[in-house]
Amino acid sequence: MKLLIVCVNYNSYGELCNYLQSVDKSASNVEGDLQLDVIIADNSSSKEVVDCGAYKAIQVKQVELQNLGYLGGAQAIINNLEDVSQYDYIIISNVDLQFEDETIKQLKNFKAGDDVAWVAPSIYSEKFKRNLNPSIINRYKRWKLTLLKLTYNSLFYSIYTKYYYANKGKNVVYPMMDIYAGHGSIIILTTNFFRIYPKIDYPIFLYGEEIYLAELIRRKRMRVVYAPSVEIKTTGGVSTSKMPSDSYFKFNKAAINFILKTFY
After folding, report:
1. Which residues pair with 97 in a beta bridge?
2. In this predicted model, what pLDDT tens digit does every residue of 143-175 receive, in sequence order?
3. Which of 29, 132, 154, 259 is most buried, by the most CB atoms less than 10 A from its CB?
4. What is the spatial distance between Cα 247 and Cα 18, in angstroms, rounded to a whole number?
């Protein structure tokens, strides 16, 4: 298996080292053929040279960027690869995650069909004490996206987060299934996706990435599959938690407006 991880870092070097060490440990547990390249898309405002010690099973490269946002940073790396389809999977992720010891082995053992473009893993959130996937099972109706946009103010968002999002699917165990979109903290795209879309062109700074990718996949009648056998852990929100609420609401509204205009 040939695997590329593009992890997007913003002023979170401590979390980044923990992340890389967990990836290296997980890769070390894989028997047989594995090439795992990691490219750090470093959006940080104050750059540091990443030195997390020696790695046993991964190759790591750091690319310094202006702050291009989450998918913006990842696509700046991906769009400059000579042959993106050489990889069986390209993983885009935050750095506030931990790979389990068996994560990469689980991914290697997962059999994605030729029509699968995105494998959404189990993501256990230590903050919410629940699995963040499957994130969006069915495509949003236009009215629901419009309503969601209205929640991005201090009062409604605190209610939404406390009473809905924190408890969403908390006591439900989902089997492997087709879904609309996975959670954006880690996005595992297959080579099938990149054969059709060798470049990603999302123009929004932050948020809405999951819906954007889901819509690209939907256009080509390909599949997003929730794969609970592939397991990740997250602390969540290390970078975005530092953002002022006004900016958070502004970026989310801009993302929804773009999605509505482009796909609805």
Report:
1. 234
2. 999 988 988 886 666 666 665 666 677 778 999
3. 132
4. 28
pLDDT of 245? 86
- Tell me the percentage of the chain whose pLDDT exceeds 70: 92
Phi, psi at residue 65, to the nearest 5°? -130, 160
Are the C-beta atoms of residues 226 and 177 closer than 8 Å to each other?
Answer: yes
Distance between CA 120 and CA 255 in Å, rounded? 21
Q: What tokens were used for 74?
A: 């990842």
Sorted by sequence, the CB contacts under 8 Å of residue 161 that are 6+ apart come out as: none
Give the tens place of pLDDT for each residue, 113-152.
999 999 999 999 998 899 999 999 999 999 999 988 988 8
Tokens 């209610």 found at: 159
| Backbone phi, psi, residue 42, to 5° | -95, 100
Angle of CA points 73, 76, 80, to nearest 5° = 155
Parallel, antiparallel, or unpaired for β 223-234 and 116-125?
parallel
User: What distance in Å separates the CA atoms of residue 39 and residue 62, rounded to the nearest whole number?
Assistant: 6
